[in-house]
Specification:
The protein folds into two domains: 82 residues, no CATH class; 101 residues, no CATH class. It has four helices and eight strands, in the order ααβββββαβββα. It is 28% helix and 18% strand.
Length: 203
């Protein structure tokens, strides 16, 4: 389902209460993004590899930075998932399939730059390129000028607020209902479970 459709679902649920349509699209998008990120976190807790089902593939270029190193400026902001890959679940080199991209932390990236350890890690096949994921950029260690000219695709989980209305949002089966319930709770239309009077119909 598209971003626009998900938003319209929420607006439809609000219609019986929000007669004047007081909720702006931007507000609703941020609410949905928070709920959607929560669902992605649930998937990550159970099986991080399963997140690959919910990525969007982008063709991407890698460019030299102003002073040193290489980076890719992304067309979207990413969901900040709690592992080294973050919202960049995989990177693929379609020019040389022997090249492998491995995620690292920012600390590991800085250590590699300062100690020049990366210069000693490209002697075997496949070549290993290391990357650290930012909000809307990815930085690379071990990258060379030749490799940077290759054709790449990035499998990303973009933040809901950073994609266009017609973009397909991949959700775990049945989670659209859960997202709507969470969104209504956040807006305050229905009380969260912790505030429900569970004894209201008991003796």
């Amino acid at each position: 389902m598209t971003k626009e459709y998900i938003r319209s679902q929420l607006r439809g649920l609000l219609a019986s209460i929000d007669k004047v349509g007081k909720y702006h699209n931007t507000f609703l998008d941020h609410i949905i993004e928070t709920c959607l990120n929560s669902v992605y976190y649930q998937v990550h807790e159970k099986n991080p590899r399963a997140l690959g089902q919910y990525t969007i593939r982008y063709s991407q270029t890698i460019s030299p930075m102003q002073y040193e190193g290489y980076a890719a400026v992304l067309p979207v902001e990413l969901v900040p998932l709690p592992d080294k890959r973050g919202g960049a679940r995989s990177i693929n080199d379609h020019t040389d399939t022997s090249i492998y991209f491995a995620p690292i932390t920012d600390q590991e990236y800085q250590l590699m730059k300062s100690s020049q350890v990366d210069d000693n890690l490209t002697t075997t096949t496949p070549n290993v390129i290391y990357y650290v994921t930012g909000v809307d950029e990815i930085f690379f260690a071990n990258m060379t000028a030749t490799i940077a000219t290759h054709t790449f695709t990035f499998d990303l989980i973009p933040a809901f607020t950073s994609i266009g209305d017609t973009v397909e949002v991949r959700l775990p089966y049945g989670k659209d209902v859960e997202i709507m319930k969470m969104a209504l709770e956040m807006i305050g239309v229905i009380p969260p479970k912790d505030l429900l009077d569970n004894n209201s119909d008991t003796r």
